[in-house]
Amino acid sequence: MVWEVSYICKRTVVSTKAVEPRKYFPLSVLDRHMENNHIKMVYYYQTSGEVELGEVTKKLRETLSEMLTHFPIVTGRLMRNERGHWKIKCNDAGVRVVEAKAKGSVEGWLTNLHREKELQLVHWEDMYHKPYYWSTFYVQLTEFEEGGLAIGLSCVHLLADLTCAALFMKAWAEVSMGNKMVIPPLFHPLPPPRPRNRNPNNQPHMELIHHYKSLIEKPISMNEARYTTISLGFSDSMVQACMSMAQPKGPITPFEVLAALFWVSLSKVKGLKNGLIDMSICLDMRKVLGLDLGFFGNCMVYNKVHVEGNNCKFSQAVSAISNVVAKMDTEGVMDLIEWLENSDVSSPTLMNGHNLVCVSSEGVNPYLDLFQDWFKPIHVSYYMEPVLGEGQVLILPGSPGEGPLSRVAMLTLKEEEAIKLCEDDLLSQFSTTILMKSQ
Predict the structure, then answer these.
(1) CA distances for 374 relative to 49, 105, 363, 370, angstroms
(2) Among 160, 188, 206, 363, whose CB has the most other CB atoms within 10 angstroms?
């Protein structure tokens, strides 16, 4: 069967209540550093076969308008302040919504999924020369003619990280169900520098600063390599087996063992017989900084992972990642934020432009986002674009039916490396489920 998506219309959806006039939101230094990136998400839902085509889209459009009342930063537009930094002017400009339909059923669509096909379900437009008229968020609602719906969400990373985007979807689902938002968005600055950081004799934690400084100073090679995305499912038992193989000396997380698994496997795929390729991890620092989960803005921080010597054993890779995660504490992150505020960075870099980047997105569970009792998510995909350099690994929660430790790994790699990775001996031990294959 030939799968097709037909675009019906694009419209603007505004909030049901006007925002406070002359209200602005300044963007933080962590926000500004992600200006060149954007996020894409696709949520797949089963729907009742009795629902008339177009009816679901209409209801979702209405509840989106109601929900946007709580997200004035999303419906506003970008402007520069007197220092040339971005800020949001709240002006009820709204969110662009694309309505579409697809042939077949959502279950049939998912049986033969690949990147190019999936990205038909999420609309995105790059910023043009007049950012004040540019929508920073886009929603695409695609109904399947034989049942099912896909909700595609995209946004500029300048305003939101993966946690924000996922909580945006969660809030929409809760409003659609007539419920109160469990985690309402909070719009406030990052924590201010601590008094001790103003002491001239204080020595800042330099590990994060050195990593960011090296990436800012290193030119990005805009190679013409063809990248593809594959998605692999790990059941609860698979993750437990992976954790047992790591032989940990202390507590470890599913993210740490899966990041190590791909670090070792991809190093072999890339031809390294000794040692490991350069890798960075990306973690949500809300808890570390004492921020509520509803904090709306960028709170993802990157750090380099090191392994001593040329040994690339799996257990050593896990320990190296676990040690770096433990060191990403409040003082280190605050020192990084202060350094970024005081450094003269002319333009933001692409944090995923060099090393292999492994991103944890385990803090939210998209499978809880029910829009109706009969309207349940069956699959979710996340993207952080663009991807350059060695590639990217996103670790997401797995579907509830696979157990509490289940995870999904979405890998965007050079095409030939993605194919080889699926044949890797270490990875094949865990009998992963291929949810999305390279085309």
Answers:
(1) 10, 16, 25, 8
(2) 160
Answer with the one of 161, 176, 191 that is the final residue of a domain.
176
Q: What are phi and psi of 86, to 5 degrees?
A: -70, 145
Contact predicate 48/120, CB 8 Å: no
What dihedral do alpha carbons 155, 161, 162, 163 form, nearest 10°?
-120
Whether 181 is in a domain gets the answer no
Whole-angstrom distance, CA of residue 311 vs CA of residue 206 = 26
Report yes or no on 332 lying in a domain. Answer: yes
Q: Express each pLDDT in 125-162 by its tens digit.
A: 998 778 888 999 999 999 999 989 999 999 999 999 99
pLDDT score recorded for residue 247: 81
155/262 same-domain check: no
Burial class (CB in 10 A: 0-12, 13-18, 19+), 69: middle
Nearest residue to 410 (alpha-carbon basis) of 429, 391, 388: 391
Least confident range from 140-144, 229-233, 385-389: namely: 385-389
Q: Are residues 237 and 160 in the same domain?
A: no
Tell whether 164 and 244 lie within a shared domain: no
For residue 34, what are the domain limits? Answer: 5-176
**What is the token pair recorded at 45?**
């839902």
**Total of domains in the chain:** 2
The DSSP output letter for 325 is: H
Tell me how far apart the alpha carbons of residues 256 and 400 are, in angstroms, rounded to a whole number. 20
CATH number of the domain where residue 37 is located? 3.30.559.10
Residue type, 81: N
For 268-299, how does the pLDDT look when each residue is reduced to its tens digit (9 = 90+)? 999 887 889 999 999 999 999 999 999 999 99
Q: Say whether both 241 and 279 belong to one domain.
A: yes
Same domain, 320 and 402: yes
Q: What pLDDT, on the 0 to 100 scale, is given for residue 425?
A: 86
- CA 394 to chain centroid, in Å, comes to 7
**Amino acid letter for position 109:** W
Assign 2 a pLDDT band (cuts: 50, 70, 90): low
